[in-house]
Amino acid sequence: MANLDEPLRKVLGDKTAGALKKGLDLHTVGDLLHHYPRRYAHRGELTQLSGLQDGEHVTVMAEVVKVQGRSLTRSPGYVLEITVTDGTGLLKLSFFGRKGSYRPEKELSPGTRGLFAGKISTYVPRSGKTVRQLTHPQYKVVHEKGAEEAAQEWADEIIPIYPSTKALPIEAISTSVETVLAQLDLPDDPMPDALLSRRHLIGLREAYEGIHRPRTWDELGRAKARLKWDEAFVVQIALAQRRVVAASLPAKPRSPSFGGIQAEFDARLPFELTEGQRQVGDEIAADLAKSHPMHRLLQGDVGAGKTVVALRAMLQVVDGGGQAALLAPTEVLAQQHYRSITGMLGDLAQAGQIGGAEHATRVALLTGSQGAKARKEALLEAASGAAGIVVGTHALLQETVQFADLGLVVVDEQHRFGVEQRDALREKVDGGRPHVLVMTATPIPRTVAMTVFGDLETSVLGQLPAGRSQIQTHVVPPEKPAFLARTWERIKEEAANGRQIYIVCPRIGEQEGDEGDSVVAEEADRRSPLGIMEVLPKLEELLDGLRIGVLHGKLHPDEKDAVMRRFTARELDVLLATTVIEVGVDVPNATVMVIMDADRFGVSQLHQLRGRVGRGSLHGLCLLVTDAAPGSKARERLDAVASTTDGFKLSRLDLEQRREGDVLGAAQAGRSSSLRLLTLQRDEDVIRDAREEATALVGSDPDLSAHPGLATVLASLLDEERADFLEKT
Ligand code: ADP
Ligand code: MG
Fold it and tell me: Which of 307, 342, 615 to mutate to test the pocket of ligand 1 (most atoms within 8 A of CB)?
């Protein structure tokens, strides 16, 4: 008998186990059992030989009529040619290799019936009649049962089609799985009985049988439901535990105070807070007053006004005698936050200076690239507690950065930071934890929020501030060259009216190792995406007389800062940039954004980018320039972006188009490896139910001592995750 950890070698022998390891990276009984069929064929669905098309991927059921081996003429080697028929047509199967080295010869003798799968190719021999063939088809011999009634059973049989390789055909995998299932020795089901019956789930053994050897489609459905549940549940248990641990940690409460810097700031606000800002503000204020750390995710579409919400939270902490750190993903954004926060605070940020207001504090900026003197000053202000607010990039995470009393960490644009980084900042507090507020403008679909960010509470800023103008988006397609000409005209008109314009390209150009990583992967046969440096001379010609600035990731941070300052001060009309302006850049006077090679960007990315315009009371215009053909997938995406400004809708679309692993992998290392059947697109209800059950279970049994089976499964998931994470760092 074999348990899940048993090496396959012991069950299947060295040869087969070796092949499974080499070809499919499967080592243990558990690995093989989790190598689920990609899909299932059954006889009723099989394609008839007469209707086969060139290039089609097919599975056919046919009988061998002729077997012929011949040596190749031009190269050493041998080809085994087998002709099969299903009565409606003929198909040739070719297997190349050394003579006698092939199982097909032994298994596929005339009269044998089998399933054959592969991609159809055709050729016309001298005789003139088109021959259809499958080269190295995957196949499975089907033994015909003699009896009449057995025929029906056979017709209904569900045939698992496994992900396979040339060396490991489907049928070799099927046989191995059968052997393993026959010897399988499972411990008690890790899922509590009561839970299984409450959620109408079958047992684990039955599920393994059902996914690998389903007798009916119902059986298969039940097996999938159970295995999906396990995937969702284990992740939710881990998250529920995180929440319990976090909630039990001590944190210094920072109650709202009357008549402090926050109240002073509120009184000076040049606008009314929106209903949403007020509500979320109250939630956060209440969280900060608790003696356990807040872990809150603040979602709000681009331009929703998250910064003010965060700043008010930071000021509450300053009022409570503590400090707040604001962590930004890029240098540009850190600098902009610093500028806008000091700007909004005015003399409230000038403590210790002449003219500093009563209750005033100080704001420090800490980035990786600043000069030694500025850095030393900032470090000192953070460590002494003089700075109530410290704004910075990753540099804030370094060990040398010390705080006198860090009470709140605000992470802007969370999707760029992982859990580990959040934790690094949390460690900076002696004998307790800071409160944490994570902000993201990429609307996160509920399922992702519940999985990747499942240890955070969520607040949503639903509406945009009043008076916020519309953004109109248009595609500028290759078949309408007049649109492009009009684009340049429009830019000149806007500039003449004193407005400003962004032009975005996917690449910097003229150098190796561009910041291309955030751009949709390139296909081999396409021209490389437009680079700023290639576009610049043309723009200077087209937009003669306009002041054009250039901004990209490879610039020295001082230069970046200088360019942003000049743009903000309206000393530039046009900012030609890469996606460094994607997050958070806020220049209300900018009204037009032109995105070159727009099809090279992801949907959410385009949405983020266009959020840079239409921020003030002026209407925004976004032009998506592309040479993608009408009707192509790329054009569909662009049309979708042009058709709606609903970020949630777009992020769902984005999620559908990306692979699961990308979504999860980007946000948090490792978690993807445990998801095989569960999809974030389609299984929201499973994830929600699992979260509910996991929260309840962990609530009554935090360390899973009453659920040893579950504890074991969890431990192995976490190991896997840690291993993955280590590999990636
Ligand atoms: P985001 O949520 O994208 O980070 P910001 O916080 O940068 O958005 O806010 C966008 C702009 O809206 C800023 O210029 C900000 O001053 C302004 N703003 C924020 N809240 C309001 C409000 N309640 N009324 C009017 N303008 C606001
Ligand atoms: Mg922002």
Answer: 307
Strand partners, 96: 79
Report the atom number in ligand 1 closest to the C-alpha of 277: 23
434 Cα–ligand 2 center, Å: 21
What does DSSP say about strands 90-97 and 78-85: parallel, antiparallel, or unpaired? antiparallel
Closest CA to ligand 1's atom 19: 305
Closest CA to 294 of 419, 404, 396, 409: 409
- In single-letter form, the type of residue at position 221 comes to G
Residues 440, 446, 447, 452, CA torsion sign: positive
Q: Is the pLDDT of residue 729 over 80?
A: no
Flag the least confident range among 17-31, 539-553, 636-650, 655-669. Answer: 655-669
Nearest-atom number in ligand 1 for the CA of 308 is 6
Which of 308, 440, 617 for mutating ligand 1's site (highest number of atoms within 8 Å of CB)? 308
Residue 414 in contact with residue 297, Cβ under 8 Å? Answer: yes
Q: What is the pLDDT of residues 245-275, one digit of tens each?
A: 877 888 999 999 888 999 999 999 999 999 9
Q: Which residues contact 524 (CB under 8 A, 6 or more apart)?
A: none
Find the 303 Cα to ligand 1 centroid distance in Å: 6
Locate the ligand 1 atom nearest the alpha carbon of residue 461 and give its number.
2
Instruction: Render pLDDT for 353-410 as a digit per residue (tens, 0 to 9).
Output: 888 788 899 999 998 888 899 999 999 999 999 999 999 988 888 878 899 999 999 9
Task: With 0.85 as the threshold, say if the pTM is over it.
Answer: no
Among 326, 415, 586, which residue has the most ligand 1 atoms within 8 Å of its CB, making it the best to mutate?
Answer: 586
Ligand that lies nearest to the alpha carbon of residue 310, given by its number in the listed order: 1
Residue nearest atom 24 of ligand 1, based on CA coordinates: 465
Ligand of minimum distance to the alpha carbon of 308: 1
Q: Are 287 and 459 in contact (CB under 8 A)?
A: no
**Tokens at 329, concatenated:** 């993903």
**Domain architecture of the chain: domains with CATH:** 44-156 (2.40.50.140), 261-461 (3.40.50.300), 471-644 (3.40.50.300)
Instruction: In whole angstroms, give the CA distance from residue 592 to residue 600.
Output: 19
Ligand 1 centre from 361 Cα, in Å?
22
Q: What is the pLDDT of residues 425-445, one digit of tens each?
A: 666 666 678 899 988 876 666
C-alpha 315 – ligand 1 centre gap (Å):
17
Ligand 1, CB within 6 Å, residue ranges: 271-274, 277, 300, 302-308, 441, 465, 584, 586, 588, 615
Q: Which atom of ligand 1 is nearest to the CA of 307?
A: 6
Could you give the CA distance from residue 299 to residue 605 in angstroms, rounded to a whole number?
A: 16
The residue whose CA has the least distance to atom 13 of ligand 1 is 305
Closest ligand 1 atom to residue 412 Cα is: 4
Q: Is the pLDDT of residue 511 over 80?
A: no
Which residue type sits at 143?
A: H
CA distance 386 to 351: 8
Q: Between the CA of residue 363 and those of 90, 342, 478, 533, what are the distances in Å?
A: 79, 7, 49, 36
In this prediction, residue 514 carries a pLDDT of 45
Beta strands at 131-135 and 113-123: parallel, antiparallel or unpaired: antiparallel
Separation of CA 593 and ligand 1 centre (Å): 19
Phi, psi (deg, nearest 5) at residue 131: -110, 130
Residues 450-469 as b/e (b if ≥16 CB within 10 A, e otherwise) read bbbbbbbeebbbeebbeebb
List pLDDT tens digits, range 708-723: 999 988 887 777 665 5
Record the tokens describing residue 133, joined without a space: 């063939």
217-248 vs 684-700: helix crossing angle, rounded to 10: 50
- For residue 720, the surrounding DSSP H or E stretch is helix 708-728
